[in-house]
Design a protein that fits this description.
alpha/beta; single chain; 6 strands; 6-stranded mixed sheet
């Protein structure tokens, strides 16, 4: 039987060598190391200018309130990835994330497995709502 290739995480997330990425509340040294090998433009705080992508960890429903602020950090065609625990041990359901995105004026358009224990959901501006 042929072995199936697994797409690398950074490819799933859409990280390019030219990407400017902000990472918040994601405690994964291996991920940060891989990310910094892919792009040298990584910050772990609020960026000084708009970035292509924000990757942030969420544990509780109230953490999703940050989506309103984080959307001001990204380029009009940028993305926000919310990383959360998978499975029955998670305090958050997919529907919680989807609703929080809508409440913040964003839509979800992709889900990716972040690790064995965590999944990620991507949020973007609707085409009609993208800032000029």
């Amino acid at each position: 039987m042929a072995e199936t290739a697994t797409k690398p995480l950074l490819d799933k997330l859409g990280v390019k060598p030219s990407s400017k990425v902000a990472v918040l509340d994601v405690e994964d040294a291996s991920f940060l190391e891989q990310l910094r090998e892919r792009t040298h433009n990584v910050v772990t705080r609020k960026p000084r200018s708009r970035c292509d992508m924000v990757i942030f960890g969420v544990e509780q429903l109230r953490d999703l309130d940050r989506l309103r602020e984080l959307k001001t950090w990204i380029e009009p065609n940028g993305a926000i990835w919310a990383v959360r625990r998978k499975g029955p041990g998670s305090a958050l359901r997919d529907t919680d994330l989807i609703q929080a995105g809508l409440d913040a004026g964003l839509v979800d358009n992709k889900i990716a497995s972040f690790s064995d224990t965590h999944g990620a959901m991507r949020f973007v501006f609707r085409l009609t709502d993208r800032p000029k």
